[in-house]
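Let's inspect one such protein example.
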Amino acid sequence: MRITAISSGTTLVSGLIYNTLALPIRAEDDNNQNDPKDEGDNGAFGTIKSIFDPDEKTKTGKLLPKAYLKDAREVVKTLRESLEEDVKDASKFRRSADAAKESIRQYLSNWKGQSTVVAEESYAAIEKAIRTLANFYSKEGPFATMTDEVKATILGDLKTAEDFL
């Protein structure tokens, strides 16, 4: 019985080797080997380049700093979570609001007025959302419950920002 198992295993391995060697080999045209359109997008070189490249393509195809995209995505995520949190659960709401405040502070300290991103649609939308939030709390006070209209406005701005990130 043991001989059968070894024999079957040998047959399986030799069958795989035969099938691999029997596959037709296709020669590629020399002109396709160094296609400049493909450089940097595929293969090991493209992977290594993407690790060290400080820029990243957005959904719209623009190249923006990876650090900006990370900070902007974090602001959008935490602010949205904070706005969608139930205010009746005060401790959970405070945690999400604190996370949003921290991500907004980091975003503003790193990117406010930076010429590399100030003209971007995502930057303008995030700035508008932050400004709307700040205006609401400066008028209504730090413990005011946000109206649905203000929430909808901010969430719309966050959606616009996300579409461009």
